[in-house]
Amino acid sequence: MRKTYINGLGCISVQETFDTIFLEKAEINENDTILPVKTPVYKDFISPVAIRRMAKGVKNGIVASAMAMKEANVSTVDAIITGTGMGCIEDSEKFLKAIIDNKEEFLTPTSFIQSTHNTVGAQIALGLQCKAYNLTYVNGSISFESALLDAKMKIEEEEANIILVGGIDENADYTTSLFKLAGFIKRENEGPYKVLNATTKGAVYGEGATFFVLENEKKSTTYAEILDVEIINKLDVNEVESKCSAFLEANGLQVSDIDTIVLGFNGDVEFDPYYKILSENSFKNTPQAFYKQLSGEYNTASAFGLWVGAKIIKTQEVPEIISVNNLEKPAYKTILLYNQYKGIDHSFTLISKC
């Protein structure tokens, strides 16, 4: 069975994760409940004519994918697989608002055409003139992991050699207001909004696009090997440790073999115990990292988490800004990532140095 290597990365997020090495310009914002994306210079990647018609999620996805392909030194791919929770929600809102404002008459189709969840994958394919396998997974907070698992299986089964995989989500005003009403987002005027040891419900929300070029061959640009991905729909808090141990054992590993665990803490006091049980028990003597204090919470934030894990292996450091317990190891070879959202859609991802 062939191996799967991460050979290129591209990340557009609420931090300056482009034109940097690894979070040296990152800042923690504990005052706002919604974190806007930091945008690159779009016209360096997309023609100004096309930019006008694109929502930010589409633009960010195109730029992040271009960065990943440039780093991996590839010009075409055998498959494009994306994951998104809310899709191009900004254009969906525009179209629905136009229906109401115009009383269902004289509607322009642009926002409707651009509002589908697979718009990002389609626009990337159009730009590359790529007519290969193109699939978008819309599966809540495991949308990205579903795409990653599909890509890994295609490489293992020798159905593709080079695959572009990404996770994309964007914020939109009306949807955000609904999330606030539902209690998904932290209440205003309750800051500072700390992620670790939080005492309130909800999370600080963000947005972003993170892409990876996966190949079956190791290259000079290789970050890490993807060893395994597992998705579990529902778990009780007291089941997490046993499921984690079983996942490691299936890969011939033990807790002591993990050099860093990357956890998806988001500051929701109701559901962060899923992470705490690993942090305070099985992995209490293991270096721990967290990332949603930088990225914010969104359906495909775990793609940002994988970007963090890959960078740790490449740079052989865990920056202080993402360290949970300030423990260190002389080398970071094997990293475990764990994420969940509101107690469902749990994922374990295992990567290693090649």
From TrEMBL:
<dbReference type="InterPro" id="IPR000794">
    <property type="entry name" value="Beta-ketoacyl_synthase"/>
</dbReference>
<dbReference type="GO" id="GO:0005829">
    <property type="term" value="C:cytosol"/>
</dbReference>
<keyword id="KW-0808">Transferase</keyword>
<feature type="domain" description="Beta-ketoacyl synthase-like N-terminal">
    <location>
        <begin position="46"/>
        <end position="219"/>
    </location>
</feature>
<protein>
    <submittedName>
        <fullName>3-oxoacyl-(Acyl-carrier-protein) synthase</fullName>
    </submittedName>
</protein>
<dbReference type="InterPro" id="IPR016039">
    <property type="entry name" value="Thiolase-like"/>
</dbReference>
<dbReference type="Pfam" id="PF00109">
    <property type="entry name" value="ketoacyl-synt"/>
</dbReference>
<dbReference type="GO" id="GO:0006633">
    <property type="term" value="P:fatty acid biosynthetic process"/>
</dbReference>
<dbReference type="InterPro" id="IPR014030">
    <property type="entry name" value="Ketoacyl_synth_N"/>
</dbReference>
<dbReference type="GO" id="GO:0004315">
    <property type="term" value="F:3-oxoacyl-[acyl-carrier-protein] synthase activity"/>
</dbReference>
